[in-house]
Amino acid sequence: MTSPAEIREIAIRHGRAKKRNNAIVAVLSGAVPGLVLSHYVLPDWKCWFAGLIAGLLWSNAFEYTYHRWLLHRPRSSFAKGHLDHHMHVGTPGEPEHVSLGRRPFHIALLFASNGIVVIVLDLILGFRVAPGIFVGWTVYLVAAEEIHWRIHMDAWLPPGLRFARAYHMSHHEIPNTRYNVFLPFCDFLFGNTAFAMNVTATQPLTQGAALPVSSQSHSERLPQAEEAPS
Description:
Elements (H helix, E strand, L loop, with lengths): L3 H38 L3 H27 L5 H11 L16 H22 L4 H23 L10 H11 L11 H5 L28 H4 L9
Helix pairs in contact: 1-4, 1-5, 2-5, 4-5, 5-6
């Protein structure tokens, strides 16, 4: 019979593979097209900088919107996979459900659907910011995946981002608040940084109650399985 520690080791391998594949697809779908596009629109450094900032802000807003109104919409197809993530927090199989993108195909589709809008608008308006936006999307997604992984794996986080662990895990305590993972810009903008207590107000995931996790740390809740550095 497979032990909890063995299950966790397998889940870590699968979770790392998902994270790596999503990062590769993000670079191929975002940064590479952005660099190719730059040879045609010829942006100067101001356009690159403006596009990068716009891409980061766009990503933060998309993360907030997608997480709040689609992933936490009761009984929706979007919420089904996200429910697995919430349900597996604190279990040996948790690492396999940490990835923000369920499959690399979804990452590519995400970039394509948003990218078409950006390219068309940029060509019409002549701002030449599309390349920077594509790169900004890539940076944000790869960073969000890595930080989200490190939050759930109790791994090292750099100074300035250590607050993100408690911030994000409080979302697993009370799922109808704190929808940004590590950069709570839109949470702050829309008043979702507070630790809301009215869980049933949005009925975030299930037909019943929310899915709180223990107040214990991960290291106390999970079987110990040594993890090599990512």
